[in-house]
Design brief:
The protein is an alpha/beta fold. Helices cover 45% and strands 14% of the residues. α6 (137-145) links the parallel β4 and β5.
Length: 428
């Protein structure tokens, strides 16, 4: 009954969502391989090897999935792994980092009955693994109808979903009761899944796999990054990652200008969450009197230096944090939920962020409690915090040790997730 009502709702709202889909296919970032959105995935029918389908929506979920996928490849060599994303950026990250672990990369189909049936008919997975909060009724129901398993890994329920989920509890209960098991990030997430209708007997706290991913990232040394970005030797460096709005970038630039009044040789490296923001950031910096250099134009000729760098390349931020003396992570100065704090902490860097961290609430709380993460709200607070650390090398050294220890203490989630998958593999 629930599935019938769900699909009736999809049918009645066709004029709304079909316009969105058409825009993406005709003029947006779905033009590439758009047929996969309707289930025509480029995967041959299985032969002698069983399959596992892993889905991560975008960059964040793909990063969380990396250590799990690599362990699955090591421990289940007789399985074929299919990895899907919804966004092109997630697909790009997946293909660049998991190319040696995954057999087939596909785009996730729309949750339309014919599309999911078509995709599942090609992939035929024994196990469907959904990362974080990817709950799609038709996909889950069809996978179960075919006799396959459904597992959620790195599961979390956002504050927003927890708040509004009660209104759709019947829908969530119907979906969650078809999920074989849920590995969640924290006890809070476990309680929230249960409140939405999941069985307590089918939930286990595994931790957050992003701790494992952060430590496994391949890095260049700080010296290599200084040379690559043409940053002056010994100049303090602030790396700002994942800004998402003009307001956040204005706040960061305001703080940077205050820092320069005390430490005029300080360098700024800013990497927006979406590369289409590069031009706007460049205009902002030029309007403030700076001469920013784009990462793609560096290094400069010998004896020339850059003081302000905008990262206009893809996939380098995790490594780039290594050159920072202080890191700032965006996405939380505006009510957007925050962005990845794991990457700078894995390099032992003190990290500043805004108050809106509901998508990363657990790591934000852990970072604050350990004295390695600092929540600020204004440009002045950010500037004062940065200057305090830049003027105190011993404090930064202490924070480095504390941050590295924090990440080490929370490793192992990926191994627990893989053990969970192995327990729930369909009988051979």
């Amino acid at each position: 009954m629930i599935r019938t009502l769900y699909n009736l709702g999809l049918l009645l709202t066709t004029p709304l969502w079909s316009v969105y889909v058409a825009q993406r296919v005709l003029w947006g970032n779905w033009r590439d391989r758009w047929r996969e959105r309707f289930g025509a995935v480029p995967v041959p029918l299985p032969t002698d090897k069983p399959r596992i389908w892993i889905h991560g929506v975008s960059v964040g979920e793909t990063l969380a999935a990396q250590p799990v996928v690599k362990l699955l490849r090591e421990q289940l060599p007789h399985y074929e792994l299919v990895f899907s994303t919804t966004t092109p950026t997630g697909q790009q990250i997946a293909r660049s980092t998991l190319r040696n672990s995954v057999d087939y990369f596909i785009y996730f189909p729309l949750d339309l009955p014919f599309a999911v049936r078509r995709a599942l008919s090609r992939v035929q997975p024994q196990v469907l693994i959904l990362f974080e909060t990817e709950l799609w009724l038709n996909l889950i129901s069809e996978q179960k109808r075919r006799g396959g398993r459904v597992i959620i890994l790195n599961g979390r329920i956002s504050d927003r979903t927890a708040h509004y989920g009660a209104r759709l509890r019947a829908l969530y209960t119907y979906m969650l009761r078809q999920v074989d098991f849920i590995g969640v990030q924290s006890p809070v997430d476990a309680a929230r899944f249960i409140a939405l209708g999941a069985s307590p007997a089918r939930i286990e706290v595994c931790g957050n796999t992003k701790f494992d991913q952060a430590l496994s990232a391949a890095d260049r040394s700080p010296a290599e990054w200084r040379a690559t970005l043409s940053l002056p030797e010994n100049a303090p460096v602030i790396v700002v990652g994942s800004t998402r709005t003009p307001e956040e970038e204005v706040l960061v630039v305001d703080a940077y200008q205050q820092v320069l009044q005390s430490l005029p040789d300080t360098c700024l490296v800013i990497a927006p969450r979406h590369l289409e923001r590069v031009e706007a950031i460049e205009q902002l910096l030029r309007a403030r009197g700076f001469q920013p250099r784009r990462r793609s134009t560096l290094p400069l000729p010998t004896n020339q230096h850059a003081q302000v760098v905008i990262v206009d390349t893809f996939g380098e931020l995790a490594s780039l944090y290594s050159v920072a003396d202080v890191a700032v992570v965006g996405g939380a100065f505006a009510p957007l939920g925050g962005q990845n704090l794991f990457q700078p902490l894995a390099h032992g860097k003190p990290v500043f962020f805004g108050p809106h961290t509901h998508n990363f609430r657990d790591i934000a709380q852990l970072a604050k409690a350990a004295g390695v993460g600092f929540e600020v709200q204004t440009a002045q607070q950010l500037a004062e915090g940065i200057l305090r650390l830049l003027h105190d090398p011993k404090l930064r050294e202490h924070i480095t040790q504390q941050a590295l220890e924090l990440v080490r203490q929370h490793q192992g989630a990926a191994a627990r997730c893989v053990a969970l998958v192995q327990r729930w593999l369909a009988p051979q």
